[in-house]
Amino acid sequence: MWSNFFVQQDEEGRAGVAGQSGGLAGMKGGRGQRRIHKMSDSQEGKIKLAFFVSIVGVTLTVLGMGTEFWVELAQPKNFSGNQTCQMAHYGLWKGCIRTLWVADIDPERTSCGPADLPGSNCTYFKFFTSGENAVIFKKTTNKAAILALLSLTMMVMGSICIAMSLSKGVQFFLKPASFCFILSVLVLLSVLIFHQSVLALLSSDHSIPLHHELSWSVACVGSAGAILIFGGVLFVILALPFSPWQKCFPHKNNAT
C-alpha cells in the first residue's frame, strides 16, 4: 500500500513539473511570436514595386551624374568669320570643347552646335586636387558635385535598408529607407547650384556672346529627383501599421 502511494505521488510531481515547463515554453514562444511581425506576401509585393520605382530613380541619377551634358555653351556660328565655330558642354566632373564645321550645322540654327556632332576635346576637372580647372565655374561646381555624391550615398543606404527588409521579412527598415530616399532630393539642389555657377560664368565676361541651355543630363537628374521623392512617399505609406485605404473601406477588408 505504501509503495503504491509513493509511486502515485512521484507521478503527480513529474506531471506538475512537466506542466510548468510546458507553460514556460509556451510563454516564451508567445513572447517570441509577439515580437516578430512578418509581412504578408501582398505587402512584400508592394515593397518590391516601390523599390523598383526607386531603382529607376537611382539609375537616372547615376546616368546624369556620370555624363558631361549638364549645360551647353555655344558662340554664334559666324562669330569667328571662318568655316569653324566652337562650343562647350560641361558636367560635374568633365568639360568638353568642340570645334565644328559651320557647313555641318543646321542653317536655321544661329549658334554653334549641337553637341552630338564629332570633334571634341574633353578634360576632367581637378576638384579634389589643385582645383585649377574649377575656376571655370567660380569654384562652385564642386559644391554641386559634393551634394550629388551625398545624394547618391543616401540612395545606396536606402537601397540597403529595403534589401534588408525584404530578406528579413520585417517592416522595421522601411522608415529609414523612406528617410534616405526623400533626403536624396539633394540632387535637385545640386542642379540649382550648378545652374547658378553657369550664370555666374556668363555674367563674368561679356566679350564673347554665348548661348547656354541645360542639356539632357540635367533632365535625367531632375526626373530622378521626382521619382525618388515619389518612392520615398510610397515607403512611408507602406511603413504605417495600417493601410490608408483600410480605413476608407473597412467592410471590404473584413469580408476578405
TrEMBL record:
**Entry's transmembrane regions:** 49-71, 144-166, 178-202, 214-242
User: Which Gene Ontology cellular component annotation is one that this UniProt entry carries?
Assistant: L-type voltage-gated calcium channel complex
Q: Where in the cell is it found?
A: Membrane
Tell me the GO molecular function terms. Answer: calcium channel regulator activity; voltage-gated calcium channel activity
Annotated GO biological processes are: regulation of calcium ion transmembrane transport via high voltage-gated calcium channel
InterPro entries associated with the record: PMP22/EMP/MP20/Claudin, VDCC_g1su
Where is region (Disordered) located? 13-37
Q: What is this protein called?
A: Calcium voltage-gated channel auxiliary subunit gamma 6
Recorded source organism is Amphilophus citrinellus (Midas cichlid)
What taxonomic classification does the UniProt entry list for its organism? Answer: Eukaryota, Metazoa, Chordata, Craniata, Vertebrata
